[in-house]
Design brief:
By secondary structure, the chain is of the alpha/beta class. Helix content is 44%, strand content 21%. The chain has ten helices and twelve strands. It starts with a helix and ends with a strand. About 3% of the residues have low confidence.
Length: 394
């Protein structure tokens, strides 16, 4: 029996032997048992440490997530959608942008007041300039045009409401000489100023003009306050009556009226030319049509003077006018010549834009070749930078 036990131990020794000998330091089976228990305990300790560390990390991250969510909720509630919170333990870092002048301190205070938050870092918050105020776009409509020929009338343009549209159509239809009215081109455009004040007066004016003018036009540009009547009539009395009624309308509603209609084959007289020239000279005396420096862009002072000249021109609509541009000696002669032509053209274009007939104007630039004052002084140069209006017989 003892011999068999000894033989079994030798076989175990041979099975457990490695390259450097038996696995048991002493070759005793008790040592093997002790090593196995040691390994088990060591692995258990390692597992416990790992589990503990994982629990700590998980618990910390859970706390961070809760604080982070609470902080972001507080930021949104404060009205800041470009700011976010990031938790590091119990400390909260705020990142993002806010508009300068907004109460960001209130949002920071709200985060700092969350239970469990130990500190708030706002070093990554940056202010930005507030956005510019939106530019309100002006609603601009087409001019209202009533054109008629042999009893047939076409109405085009934009009006502010369906009631205005109906009132204008009714005013035209009620005129005795009108047989057909085409108003497909008359459109309602929301946002335009109301025409209620003057629409009825326009009906009265049309009723007066249509019977005595076989072919003509009435137009009004509400945004610039200009209206006019064109066409030919053989009756001087009717021409006078139409102009008088139109001028009364212009005065009542602060509009500018371009006189019309004209007489057929109107001959321009010397008296008309001289009278218009006298009117223009009085308006220009001591004044200049002002432009921006080294530019053909009119200033407000310049356009104000041209508005007065426009009214004077309307009193003699058949008299041709030459618009002359002049410059001081500052700058090169070539540039002065170019600038004088550009400025004379700008004046012509402004008057035409107000409603004057383009074919009545001619343009000429003289640069610095025709001074009327001393170019060695600033006052003299200012006088030489000028626009002149010459009424012509032909």
């Amino acid at each position: 029996m003892a011999r068999n036990a000894t033989k079994r131990l030798k076989e175990l020794n041979r099975q457990n032997a490695g390259p450097s000998g038996p696995r048991f330091p002493s070759g005793n089976p008790d040592d093997e048992i002790r090593v196995s228990w040691f390994n088990f305990i060591l692995m258990a300790v390692i597992a416990f440490v790992a589990l503990t560390a994982g629990a700590v990390v998980f618990g910390t991250r859970s706390i961070e997530g809760g604080l982070e969510q609470a902080a972001n909720d507080a930021i949104v509630a404060s009205g800041f959608d470009q700011v976010t919170a990031h938790a590091d333990g119990t400390e909260i870092e705020l990142r993002g942008t806010y508009v300068e002048g907004e109460p960001i301190a209130e949002a920071v205070g709200a985060v700092a007041g969350i239970r469990g938050v130990s500190a708030v870092d706002a070093n990554e918050l940056f202010s930005v300039a507030p956005p510019p105020d939106p530019v309100e776009r002006e609603i601009v409509g087409r001019r209202v045009m009533v054109a008629w020929s042999e009893g047939s009338v076409a109405i085009t343009g934009d009006v502010s409401s369906s009631s205005t549209r109906s009132a204008l159509i009714e005013a035209v239809q009620s005129t005795p000489t009108v047989s057909v009215v085409e108003a497909e081109g008359l459109v309602v455009l929301e946002g335009l100023p109301s025409e209620a004040e003057w629409i009825d007066e326009v009906g009265v004016l049309l009723a007066l003009a249509l019977p005595g003018i076989p072919d003509g036009e009435f137009y009004i540009v509400p945004r610039s306050g200009v209206f006019g009547i064109s066409g030919e009539t053989e009756s001087r009395q009717l021409r006078k009556d139409v102009n008088t009624s139109a001028e009364d309308l212009a005065l009542a509603f602060s509009l500018d009226y371009i006189p019309g209609p004209s007489l057929p084959d109107t001959v321009v007289t010397v008296e008309q030319v001289e009278e218009l020239q006298d009117d223009l000279d009085v308006l220009i005396e001591g004044k200049v049509v002002e432009f921006e420096s080294d530019s053909a862009e009119l200033t407000e002072i310049g356009t104000a003077l041209l508005d007065e000249i426009f009214i004077a021109l309307g009193l003699f609509p058949n008299v041709p006018v030459r618009v002359e541009g002049h410059a001081s000696s500052e700058g090169s002669s070539q540039r002065n010549l170019e600038l004088s032509v550009e400025r004379a053209t700008a004046v012509r274009d402004y008057l035409v834009g107000r409603g004057a007939a383009e074919n009545r104007f001619t343009i000429e630039g003289f640069g610095d070749t025709r001074p009327i004052a001393d170019n060695s002084t600033e006052a003299g140069r200012a006088r030489n930078r000028r626009i002149e209006f010459i009424a012509e017989l032909e």
